[in-house]
Specification:
It is built from nine helices and 15 strands. It has about 350 residues and is α+β, with helices and mostly antiparallel strands. The N and C termini lie far apart (about 50 Å). It folds into two domains: about 190 residues, Fructose-1,6-Bisphosphatase, Chain A, domain 1 (2-Layer Sandwich); about 140 residues, D-Maltodextrin-Binding Protein, domain 2, CATH 3.40.190. About 30% of the residues lie in helices and about 20% in strands. Strands 4-3-5-6-7-8-9-10 form an eight-stranded mixed β-sheet, sandwiched between helices. The chain binds 6-O-phosphono-alpha-D-fructofuranose. 6-O-phosphono-alpha-D-fructofuranose binds next to loops.
Length: about 350
């Protein structure tokens, strides 16, 4: 929002903000703007259901399992169908990739195929829903690059640095939508009384270094030596460098990421170096790691798989996994140094597995 004084909080809706950003792109058709607004609408609808899930018979499992082999929570299903039904007939999207569907969803007649490809985690962290822990929707938007009239897989399988926009909606003590189109990172809090996302966190910048680390210590026996040495280093007392860091782990990526985005810190979901089938970690590249990497980079942070920028990784399949180390720039870079020092011989485990 260069050159514009930030409007008073509580009056600036996300729609007005998105339209203002569109003015910076005179060639914009308005479709991209409307697509972001469609996602905001989906977030409002999902928020309504998440916030009353305990009252309505919508908690609990559907009895099905998704492509990840994870049990599908009813709210997962609801969130997935809500977003898909808003986007698939909007005429703005040519193909959709979502955690809940094993295959990409191409927009076919009678619906018009648009110029954008959207990857989604409709309700990330959903295993926490019945414990009333914050969960979130994560989205990533690419421009259509395939030549034909309809969407193709290649429209989804693009590098993170080709994203046009990325963001998330966090359903927590309040519902917030945080997004970036590459022009800063901006946070909007839902005011249910007016049904609007109102600007609450203009131009979010992540501190260069934090004092919190987020990792599932239960997996520590499966970490590489580099990760093990790095986490051990964070626990050493050295007040000048702000160590020991505090450990904060919610087990919901959007929640752990959001806290670190606002206050600084590092989140890690490393590879499992003891199981050749898990050397790419748990989190998915297209609809978890890449959108978070886009957001954090535009807030002054960094995201890595331990040796390269997440945004430079070529996606080859929709549900491709990647190790993820994301957060304050200096913290992530410091972690990479430990990996370079201790793990060089192991970083090619994937290649050796062939
Ligand atoms: P673990 C939730 O299932 C999720 O995909 C992310 O939201 C979260 O960061 C991670 O998995 C938690 O995984 O193995 O620590 O429970």
């Amino acid at each position: 929002m260069e050159g514009k004084s930030v409007p008073p909080k509580g009056t600036w809706t996300i729609e007005r903000h998105i339209m203002l950003q569109e003015k910076a792109h005179p060639d914009a058709s308005g479709d991209f703007t409307q697509l972001l607004m469609d996602i905001a609408l989906a977030g409002k609808i999902i928020s309504r259901e998440v916030n009353k899930a305990g009252l309505v018979e919508i908690l609990g499992l559907t009895g099905e399992t998704n492509v990840q082999g994870e049990q599908v929570q009813k709210l997962d299903d609801y969130a997935n169908h809500t977003i898909l039904s808003i986007l698939d007939r909007s005429g703005r999207v040519c193909i959709l990739g979502t955690e809940e569907n094993s295959e990409p969803i191409r927009i076919l007649p009678p619906y018009e195929a648009g110029n954008y490809a959207v990857s989604l985690d409709p309700l990330d962290g959903s295993s926490n829903i019945d414990a009333n822990v914050s969960v979130g929707t994560i989205f990533s938007i690419h421009r259509k690059v395939s030549k034909g009239p309809r969407g193709e897989d290649e429209d989804l399988l693009q590098k993170g640095n080709k994203q046009l926009a990325a963001g998330y909606i966090i359903y927590g003590s309040s519902t917030m939508m945080v997004y970036s189109t590459g022009n800063g990172v901006h946070g909007f809090t839902l005011d249910p009384s007016v049904g609007e996302f109102l600007l609450s966190h203009p131009d979010i910048r992540i501190p260069k270094r934090g004092s919190v680390y987020s990792v599932n210590e239960g997996n520590s026996l499966f970490w590489s030596k580099g990760i093990t040495e790095y986490i051990h280093y964070l626990k050493q007392r050295d007040e000048q460098s702000g160590r020991p860091y505090s450990s904060r782990y919610i087990g919901s990526l959007v929640s752990d990421f959001h806290r670190n985005l606002l206050h600084g810190g590092i989140f890690l979901y490393p590879a499992d170096f003891k199981d050749p089938n898990k050397t790419q970690g748990k989190l998915r590249l297209l609809y978890e790691a890449a959108p978070m990497a886009f957001i954090v980079e535009h807030a002054g942070g960094y995201a890595s798989d331990g040796r390269q920028n997440i945004l430079d990784i070529e996606a080859t399949e929709l549900h491709q996994r990647t190790p993820l180390i994301v957060g304050s720039y200096e913290d992530v870079k410091e972690c990479e140094k430990f990996i370079a020092e201790y793990d060089n011989d192991k970083l090619d485990v994937k290649e050796k597995k062939k």
